[in-house]
Write a structure and sequence with these properties.
The protein is mainly α and 352 residues long. The chain has one domain (11-346): ADP-ribosylation/Crystallin J1 (ADP-ribosylglycohydrolase fold, Orthogonal Bundle), CATH 1.10.4080. It has 18 helices and no strands. It starts with 15 loop residues before the first helix and ends in a 6-residue tail after the last helix. The structure holds magnesium ion (MG).
């Protein structure tokens, strides 16, 4: 990716409200889309009209699928390490793996190779699916003040399972979009007309030209007309399990909406890989508007057992605390003489 930053570092963009928003936004979109995964937009509209309630599907109502389960593993690893350490994360993916959550077929081989002890960067496949993007929103919110850090962490976590350029580009685009959403939200700036599409296209193009050109199609759509946007997004994008055809419509649903609930409902209504497109739009919306804006009826309906809603909120707190501790431990200790020695070697005062 280019070594340019859309914005200078903004520490205030990293907060519990935005990280928890990305995490629970992912879970809400995942659970709302779960019962209609694989359906067409027309079939969803015919059966449910506007689907805005948590319904049972192959899992009970409010339960999440593989998307959120792998996100939980990412948060656990961030909470343990304070940063994204891919060998540790690969072990968390394995520890959390429950086939009933609905994983893609090739993930079983990945998990077997992790269990066999193969290195994290040699267990993945050349899949161009959206598995690296579906779970990565929390990475964007966790590193929201530093888009180079977002890019590195997004690619590392993706490579554990997906190393096709389109899979990597989708993961990077999604994480960078969430980071920018958190910065815009923290600054109180509108999300529409903020140049998000142009920024993502510029950042993603060095990774994969095709993914960048698919993202660029968003710029041609009228994002200010929610009624027309569902038709426009489904006409433009396949909304399937590929990263190149599912990340852009999720971003489009966010950019075309005025609330977190509207974004998630619109994303799920697109059909296709509904749980994942809902999860990605939910991460963006939660990071931008904050966790408190997610509908309370959805949060109450989310599963809340061992690794459910409250556990995830606790992980968000622990991850931010671990990051803060790690950051402080890397600052030079002014009492040790490090700063004085460095300053004297350059002839500058230490307190300027
Ligand atoms: Mg899923």
């Amino acid at each position: 990716m280019p070594h340019t930053s859309y914005n200078p570092p903004r520490p205030e963009a990293v907060s519990f409200a935005r990280l928890a928003g990305a995490a629970l936004g992912t879970m809400c979109g995942d659970a709302l889309g779960m019962p209609v995964e694989g359906w067409s937009a027309a079939a969803i509209a015919q059966a449910h009209g506007r689907l805005e309630r948590m319904l049972p599907g192959r899992l009970p109502a409010g339960h999440y699928t593989d998307d959120s389960q792998m996100m939980v593993a990412i948060l656990e690893s961030l909470a343990a390490k304070g940063r994204l350490q891919p060998d540790h994360l690969a072990q968390r993916f394995l520890a959390r793996f429950e086939p009933k959550r609905g994983y893609g077929g090739r993930i079983f081989g990945v998990m077997r190779r992790i269990a066999e002890g193969q290195p994290w960067d040699q267990v993945g496949t050349d899949s161009f699916g959206n598995g690296g993007a579906m779970r990565v929103g929390v990475v964007g919110a966790f590193f929201a003040d530093d888009d180079q850090a977002i890019g590195r962490a997004a690619l590392d976590q993706c490579r554990i399972t997906h190393h096709h350029p389109q899979g990597l580009a989708g993961a990077a685009a999604m994480a960078l979009a969430v980071g920018l959403a958190a910065r815009l939200g923290a600054a109180g700036r509108p999300h529409q007309g903020a140049g998000m599409v142009e920024y993502l296209v510029d950042m993603v193009r060095p990774l994969d030209e095709h993914s960048a050109s698919r993202l660029a199609r968003l710029a041609a759509l009228r994002l200010d007309r929610p009624g027309d946007l569902r038709r426009a997004l489904t006409a433009e994008f396949a909304c399937d399990v590929t990263a190149a055809e599912s990340v852009p419509p999720a971003i489009g649903a966010f950019l075309g909406s005025r609330s977190a609930a509207e974004a998630i409902v619109l994303a799920v209504s697109l059909g296709g890989d509904t749980d994942t497109i809902g999860a990605m739009a939910g991460a963006l919306a939660g990071a931008y508007w904050g966790v408190d804006t997610l509908p309370s009826s959805w949060l109450e309906a989310l599963e809340n057992q061992e690794t459910g809603r409250d556990y995830v909120l606790g992980l968000c707190r622990r991850a931010l605390a671990a990051k803060s501790t790690l950051t402080k431990s890397h600052w030079p200790d002014t009492s040790s003489g490090f700063v004085q020695r460095a300053a004297s070697s350059t002839g500058r005062a230490t307190d300027s």
